[in-house]
Amino acid sequence: MPFRSILVTGGAGFIGSNFVRMVAREHPKTVITVLDALTYAGNLENIADLVDSGSVRFIKGDIREPAAVRVAMDNAEVVFNFAAETHVDRSIEEAASFIETDIQGTYNLLNFARELKVKRYVQISTDEVYGSSAGKDFDETSPLRPGNPYSASKCGGDLMCLAFANTYRLPLVITRSSNNFGPYQHVEKFIPLFITNAMEGKDLPLYGDGLHERDWIFVEDNCRAILAVAEKGNDGEVYNIAVGKSQPNLRVAELILKHVGKTNSRIVFIEDRKGHDRAYRLAAEKVRVLGWAPRTEFAPAMEETVRWYVDNRGWWERVKSGAFREYYEKQYKDKLAKGKTK
Ligand code: NAD
Ligand code: TDX
Looking at the whole model, is its pTM more than 0.90? Predict the structure, then answer.
């Protein structure tokens, strides 16, 4: 990778931690700083080994606070913004924190990226900004039609990015990927919730008729696509990232049960999510022109993912019970108190 030093916001979350692990493994000369507020979704355990070995400098801080952003961005050549409030169901209950982090936080990052003249700013966005797809594949020029407060907040962040690219010529790119799955994903999300509930012998709560479709991408494939866009994408442009194999939630739930070794009897159909987007479908040829293609097939990646949750039971039990925070705070007490872990 041609980047000397990168700032990864939200690097203690699901995709951010997988991204940091990939860069540390494959580009050991790149200096990595992680800025993460460690919200309920941020878990220092996800990158603890890298922080301990000195491969990653960790700063506990909030992108909503300009001062924290300014400190973390010092010396960053490239900024990757993964930090966000990300769970649709939470945004339906209460959206204020989504607006603050996903829009205001993005604005803070853009301001300092401009002031400090970063070489490239990469905004991690989502297929949800286009809204539900009725049979049509959305490309990067499709209109934004968010269907819930989370995706509306992501649209706000994206639009501010595009405004900075146009007004100030900030060299930035935006990636919009489909649903990710893999290790370290929070148990509130569909696939980890269903895997861990199946392991615990609990019900698997499917919303509505269970026939809503998602185009699942293995998290490592998305991380590689994000790197490709950061390295080779054109300034001011958007890149969709998807595999192009949508499937209904019910089928995914059945596959999970098969891998966990349980019967289908635990699937229960519950009241639908409010405003539930039926399907997301992306046309993602543009990123392929940069040389990216997914390396992973859904079925083996799912098997690997289930195995990860089986092998890392302590990790998700601590996330489910809430004990994860006490666990890492004990380990990093002094360092976290100073607001810096190195
Ligand atoms: P996640 O919820 O697992 O992680 C989010 C991380 O951001 C956490 O570590 C959290 O502590 C941190 N964070 C939240 N608010 C913050 C703030 N104000 N300041 C600093 N840090 C803060 O999310 P994820 O699934 O890893 O998603 C990462 C990014 O990818 C998000 O921008 C999301 O919109 C986007 N995305 C996710 C998916 C998916 O399927 N998970 C798909 C497309 C796009
Ligand atoms: O208990 C559940 N039952 C259920 O049927 C949950 C949590 C989800 N579902 C359904 C809703 C969706 O159709 O499964 C599908 C996936 O749900 P989520 O994991 O909540 O993902 P989604 O709403 O599709 O949004 C995800 O992809 C786009 C991420 O959470 C976003 O951050 C990302 O931008």
Answer: yes
